[in-house]
Amino acid sequence: MSRIDGRTPEQLRPVTIERGWSKHAEGSVLVSFGDTRVLCTASVTEGVPRWRKGSGEGWVTAEYAMLPRATNTRGDRESVKGKIGGRTHEISRLIGRSLRAVIDYKALGENTVVLDCDVLQADGGTRTAAITGAYVALADAVAWAQGRKLVKAGRQPLTGTVSAVSVGIVGGVPLLDLCYEEDVRAETDMNVVCTGDGRFVEVQGTAEATPFAREELDALLDLAVTGCAELTAAQQAALAATRA
Amino acid sequence: MSRIDGRTPEQLRPVTIERGWSKHAEGSVLVSFGDTRVLCTASVTEGVPRWRKGSGEGWVTAEYAMLPRATNTRGDRESVKGKIGGRTHEISRLIGRSLRAVIDYKALGENTVVLDCDVLQADGGTRTAAITGAYVALADAVAWAQGRKLVKAGRQPLTGTVSAVSVGIVGGVPLLDLCYEEDVRAETDMNVVCTGDGRFVEVQGTAEATPFAREELDALLDLAVTGCAELTAAQQAALAATRA
Amino acid sequence: MSRIDGRTPEQLRPVTIERGWSKHAEGSVLVSFGDTRVLCTASVTEGVPRWRKGSGEGWVTAEYAMLPRATNTRGDRESVKGKIGGRTHEISRLIGRSLRAVIDYKALGENTVVLDCDVLQADGGTRTAAITGAYVALADAVAWAQGRKLVKAGRQPLTGTVSAVSVGIVGGVPLLDLCYEEDVRAETDMNVVCTGDGRFVEVQGTAEATPFAREELDALLDLAVTGCAELTAAQQAALAATRA
Amino acid sequence: MSRIDGRTPEQLRPVTIERGWSKHAEGSVLVSFGDTRVLCTASVTEGVPRWRKGSGEGWVTAEYAMLPRATNTRGDRESVKGKIGGRTHEISRLIGRSLRAVIDYKALGENTVVLDCDVLQADGGTRTAAITGAYVALADAVAWAQGRKLVKAGRQPLTGTVSAVSVGIVGGVPLLDLCYEEDVRAETDMNVVCTGDGRFVEVQGTAEATPFAREELDALLDLAVTGCAELTAAQQAALAATRA
Amino acid sequence: MSRIDGRTPEQLRPVTIERGWSKHAEGSVLVSFGDTRVLCTASVTEGVPRWRKGSGEGWVTAEYAMLPRATNTRGDRESVKGKIGGRTHEISRLIGRSLRAVIDYKALGENTVVLDCDVLQADGGTRTAAITGAYVALADAVAWAQGRKLVKAGRQPLTGTVSAVSVGIVGGVPLLDLCYEEDVRAETDMNVVCTGDGRFVEVQGTAEATPFAREELDALLDLAVTGCAELTAAQQAALAATRA
Amino acid sequence: MSRIDGRTPEQLRPVTIERGWSKHAEGSVLVSFGDTRVLCTASVTEGVPRWRKGSGEGWVTAEYAMLPRATNTRGDRESVKGKIGGRTHEISRLIGRSLRAVIDYKALGENTVVLDCDVLQADGGTRTAAITGAYVALADAVAWAQGRKLVKAGRQPLTGTVSAVSVGIVGGVPLLDLCYEEDVRAETDMNVVCTGDGRFVEVQGTAEATPFAREELDALLDLAVTGCAELTAAQQAALAATRA
Predict the structure, then answer these.
(1) pLDDT tens-digit series, residues C176-192
(2) For the segment D155-178, what is each residue's pLDDT rounded down to a tens digit?
(3) CA distance F120 to A72
(4) Which residues of B touch A84 (CB under 8 A)?
(5) Phi/psi at C111 (nearest 5 deg)?
(6) I need a labelling partner for D93 at 20 to 30 A (CA). Which of A146, B82, B135, E108 fits?
(7) Vertex C216, ends C210 and C219: CA angle to 5°?
(8) How distant, in Å, are the alpha carbons of A7, A76, A163, A180, E164 from that of A174?
(9) Best mutation site among E63, E81, E83, E90 for testing chain F: the one with the most F CBs within 10 Å?
(10) Between the CA of residue B56 and those of A44, B107, B110, C186, what are the distances in Å?
(11) ipTM of the complex
(12) Do F78 and A74 touch (CB under 8 A)?
């Protein structure tokens, strides 16, 4: 049985990671998972938030947002509504936690990196594309900070790599990397964030229609681990390439 | 090795479920998981939100909040700050999804149930206590609606039961139902929402300090399933008792 | 003529004052005036707001709020609406002023006490129950601060006691301590805050339907003074008891 | 003993009531109590708020505000801060209640009058000047509505007149109509709203420094009743004059 | 062809500039352009915003607002709506920029002047009346600051004078100083801010109905320069007069 | 004398107009003026805002925003701050007015087009690039609506074309299309919006440092008209090309 876009159940959509997309940011990546396109920028500033001053430790945080017409129907701007919705908050927090999982705060020193993940076009999996792209932007920003001696020589703030993918059960079949049409029809939907060595940073599974059994959960986790491994390879390839 | 409060790793804190706590609400429960105390009220109104009108289907939603001095240090009121924080949003959404997992919207008819979960005292596990208590308040509210003929005779809006518990790894040991002190020291923290028949509605695991391996995830899920089964029994006992 | 709940015009509803309700707060009281139940917590922090720094004087402030389903019909959360309503503001300010009337700022030293009065169930007289309960929580918090030597030995920050009661004219008859049903039918409604020695801290009378004459005002003040004296006795009894 | 501005204790400041100040509003008054100047406009619109539709009854409401530099030190604009302060809310509500006390909603029919009271210059007593001026603006607006046949022939929406004055105890002496310098030094401060026939609409007394005794309260009420009678006369004189 | 109010195309409405309108502000002017009346106050405070501290330079800023019933139909208060509209923002920024054009920040020293322009009655040209009046209030405030030695002896913070007028094409005819009725019918609408020596500070032209040609633009600029020269003379006359 | 990037004073930066950038929007353009890159989407919905219903006329509006790291230093998100800044409001209004200048509302019928202009990278001239790009997106959206028969056959909602450019005086020399570095050093700064036939829709000139004379204004307008003509040609070329 083939999927709506012809993929096999365990196949990712075409993934591209374009580094150096912005001339201003210390790290910037335009990442695409199929038609989902997210601009991830990493902004480095010296100093940390007030509650962390004097600790000798750095900080990494993230903000996620969607352009109003990133989706099929135009959404109202959160700036116009005057408040951030629950979904936006939740995803921003998830991205921040995921990236902090591979940061050594001491090695980073009292510097802050803000990761902005702005969805330019959405077709499912925007949060997982954002995490995968933000890692590459973060790596570039950390290298920039090392080059500027903001990070002490010999210290490596990155303790590993991190990527993320969505999985779900659609029509009883576990699928990797759901596009939007699959996502809305999924019985169960899960986002998994893994480190490059195959351990878990976040596992968020939700029964959309019917509760799911342990075996289904296991099958989804298997798929996700495989998908993250492929994404890790794509990240490494992008970082190995000379920046355009 | 015994825990900070003398429990074994697979032991819940004392759980109490006090029905009919409020004279106004259609369903109301004061639930406690140890020192965590949450007042859950279920408010029934005829009609549904605008986007659902004419569908013949009902709606269930939830709002979670904490009193300012529910915690050890007083927190600012979100009403005074003028906006709801990300954590509050996230938990409100989780509670709503969890309860909707056992609702047959058609059977509920065009009625809305709002579940308010207000934490009066916090000592870890407030969201899982809220879900567990809210289910009982919801069951009472549904019975009330049936008594008032808001729900058509012979229809059962509840398709099952739902409860929730936290699990985590502290000092390398998987523990059930973390109290606050354990929670802050946990390497990994997971909230699991199960139906009464042992399937999953939500699985949310987060690596707080170090990424976790598949076997750790499996051990936590095992613990959680056991804990939810015990909570299901407590819910049934409370519902079987004549209301005070 | 007897009242809706069988009381005589000059009779209070049953009053309970339960100290030590919260394990975290420096002072905490669950107060009830009949079916009205308010959780009052007193939080002590060292230091004072910026505008008072270096004055050697302390500060006492209050915040009042209602749980959404404290009332017969569910109200929207002010945190969700993003702003505090006029009624909430007004009552918070009244409670703060009332408690400050019995505080010697110099003796308190540069410490702040925040009184949170959260209405868990409402049946008329929530602001007067809140003031009456908050005084007991404040007394416990001050004793705690003295025990911790935050307050200098030999100094007594409390200059007296304070309690409050509502009075009103219903069907031409002046009544003490209105319940909700009486309150909505009152021609005139008054909230009176007294010190333990029978003087006035606040007198707020409002003609709901028809303007009131001087003799009616006098009759209401007489009733209120009697009611506050009884409440003062209840406060003293609660404070004399060993805390549970 | 004479007062800071040479008045006797029972003397009002010079009061002026200038009708027809604005060319757009259906009623408009620039009222001054000494250096306190408030622009009161009454805006009539056909129809009532949603919750009152179909009742056949009208509505009257008020909004109070201060220009940023109405006071000695410039205050931040509430529109810039993005929220209305507690004091503003409280006074707006007081003005609305006071004017509604002399309105027959049935006679008004389904029309709404909004009273805007904007303080152009403040020197104590802004809320009492606002109520006193707003009554005159309201009377003009009601006459306008009668002229336009919005109000049925033979119906009189005004059931009486209303005015307000502040009183207080300064240095142990009860004083009428406090100016700002007196207000900040007052031990007790009271705002009293009376109808033209000498009954009370609102009595709001506050102990600023020390609780007050019943005799003090009585003395203040006596003063206030006298003051309101004088203000009633000034309102009638203004309304009797041909509008400029 | 004469205009709606009998003026010739190149004629201003009657202009009045009343200094010293407020007893509190360091400079204050009630300016009128026909029925448009704006209260302009200038508030001087020592010190500058944080981003300017230590620069030795001062700051001038402005806030524009309209009373709710300044217009023919009552508008909602921006403080009640909780946010400032785009038009208000835009005009506040325009006024601030216009006045800063004639300020020597170094000579002003680290002092701040806030210009509040509150429209009491609107009949077209409120922003241009505000700028014209605010200049006079600013001049008075600067003189006050010189008298208080906040500004160093021998320094003149004002480098020139500034005034503003609206022009527009109505029915094909270029007109000076549009009243509201002309403004709503204008094909093109332009606000021009000039210095006393006839140079431009701001030129803001907008095609309301049809794009405008270069010759039309030229004709409007000619009119505006003439109008600003007359307004400059009125400002000088007001400043030359002894303040009431 | 050549400019910082080697251009002559009357030379535009390289301009690219990439149509069909987004798969969801009815019209979408990625426009660049040198390093300034703006994503413009046009969203068509049937129906109009409430105040326009039943008029038979359509509506066009615009929203402008910047990604946080579009600029050299990261700016706070307006959605996080909870309000839109004055600059954003002002530019959104300018874009909306500019596009409405070439719309025949009757021909558009009761349809709404929202133009979202999101600055992905900023280097001066973001508002003029936005207007120029938004016109092309609007043209595509109108064609889409014609194809879907939302617009009646034989009706042309576009009455012309519109483009915009910035001009300014830097070091005494009038320059076309300022980049960021030129913009911050400009003595005078002007944004000009022209129709394709060379008439003006908006002229907004501001003296940043010193007031400007009539001859300077004339020189800037000459430059702007030339620049807009070139941009009009680029728009036509883009629209003539087959969409990618």
Answers:
(1) 999 999 999 999 999 99
(2) 999 999 999 999 999 999 999 999
(3) 20
(4) 83
(5) -125, 155
(6) B82
(7) 150
(8) 13, 33, 20, 15, 69
(9) E90
(10) 52, 9, 5, 42
(11) 0.94
(12) no
Asked if the Cβ–Cβ distance from C116 to B68 is below 8 Å, we say: yes
Cross-sheet strand order for the sheet of B173-176 = A173-176, A162-170, A188-195, A200-207, B200-207, B188-195, B162-170, B173-176
**Does B221 sit within 8 Å of A101, measured CB to CB?**
no
Task: Give A121's strand partners.
Answer: A37
Amino acid at D47: G
Whole-angstrom Cα distance, residue D77 to residue D74? 9
Beta bridge pairs of residue C104: none
Mean pLDDT, residues B84-110 taken together: 96
From the list C90, C195, C214, the residue facing D93 with the nearest CB is C90
pLDDT of F242 over the 80 cut:
no
| Binding-site sequence positions of C | 87, 125-127
In single-letter form, the type of residue at position E192 comes to V
CA-based R_g, chain D, Å: 18
User: What are the DSSP E strand ranges found in chain B?
Assistant: 15-19, 27-33, 36-46, 59-66, 111-121, 162-170, 173-176, 188-195, 200-207
Check residue F244 and give its pLDDT: 52
- CB-nearest to D199 from C160, C211, C225 is C211
Average pLDDT of the segment spanning F3-21? 96
Mean pLDDT, to the nearest integer, of A148-156? 93
Q: Mean pLDDT, consecutive 10-residue segments, chain D of 244 residues?
A: 90 97 96 98 96 96 97 94 91 97 96 98 98 98 96 93 97 96 95 97 93 96 98 97 68
Q: How far is F231 from chain A (nearest CA, A)?
A: 24
Q: How far apart are CA A39 and CA A17, in angstroms?
A: 10
Q: Tokens 């429960």: give the residue.
A: B29
> With bands split at pLDDT 50, 70 and 90, how would you rate the model's confidence at E208?
confident
Q: What is the mean pLDDT of chain C?
A: 95
CA distance E166 to E185: 14
Residue E163 has pLDDT above 80, yes or no: yes
The residues pairing with E30 across neighbouring beta strands, listed in sequence order, are E18, E39
pLDDT tens column, C70-95: 999 999 999 999 889 999 999 999 99
> F90 vs E90: CB contact, 8 Å cut-off?
yes
3-state secondary structure of B226: helix
The model carries a pTM of 0.92
Q: Residues in chain C whose beta carbon is closer than 8 A to a beta carbon of chain B?
A: 22-25, 28, 35, 39, 41, 43, 45, 63, 65, 67-72, 74, 77-84, 88, 114, 116, 118, 120-121, 123
F28, F79, F181, best to mutate vs chain A, most A CBs in 10 Å: F79
Distance between CA atoms of B110 and C187, rounded to whole angstroms? 39
Rounded Cα–Cα distance for residues D140 and D144 (Å): 6
Question: Residues D118, D43: contact at Cβ < 8 Å?
Answer: no
**Residues of chain A with a CB closer than 8 angstroms to some CB in chain B:** 83-87, 89-90, 92-93, 97, 101, 160, 190, 194-195, 197, 199-207, 211-214, 217, 221, 225
Q: How far apart are CA B139 and CA C137, in angstroms?
A: 36
Residue of F nearest to E190 (CA): F203
Question: Greatest CA span in chain E, whole angstroms?
Answer: 58
Does F86 contact E97 at a Cβ distance shorter than 8 Å? no
Task: Please tell me which residue of chain F has the smallest CA distance to E222.
Answer: F214
Residue C168 reports pLDDT greater than 90: yes
CA distance F217 to chain A (A): 33
Task: Residue C3: name the closest of C127, C185, C165 by CA.
Answer: C185
- Angle, helices C126-147 vs C86-100, to 10°: value is 50
Residue with tokens 């002010």: C78
